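Backbone shape codes:
***
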Amino acid sequence: MKRLSLLLLLALLGMTPSASSFADADEIVVVVNQANPVRAAGRDTLRPIFQTTRTEWYGKSAVPVNLPEDSPQRQRFDMAVLGLDPEGVARYWIDRKIRGGERPPRKVPTASAVLRAVGEEAGGIGYVAASDLNPTVKVIARIRDGQVVPP
């Protein structure tokens, strides 16, 4: 609704937004602790970390942090990185629980909680909207148009 109102306002003013102006607002960034030496990560690296099949990386315990299931950023992240919609993610974790696999990533309620958790944990990794980014973490990937791309 907010976006539609903005578009209507811009149309009334005779202005047209560029595609990139909305892309930046919709972009998700994958972040790690500042001490993490990794500079970039692709889907093949991120997927096993967030499915908890890879529990260690760069010599530290991987500590993935998720937003709640109903978060739009979580749903877009899961689709781009895991290739799963919310129902598929739920089925995946039920199956893992039945089979005795690792537990799901830690879940926190807000982007600021993701940034805090990742900033405090050497192996921390999470994601937030680009607009929520702060200097306590570093970006190792971006999610644009449903694709994982380098920072």
Remarks:
- The CA atoms of residues 69 and 76 lie 10 Å apart.
- The chain has one domain: 26-149.
- Helices lie at 2-12, 19-26, 43-50, 72-82, 86-99, 111-120.
- The radius of gyration is 17 Å.
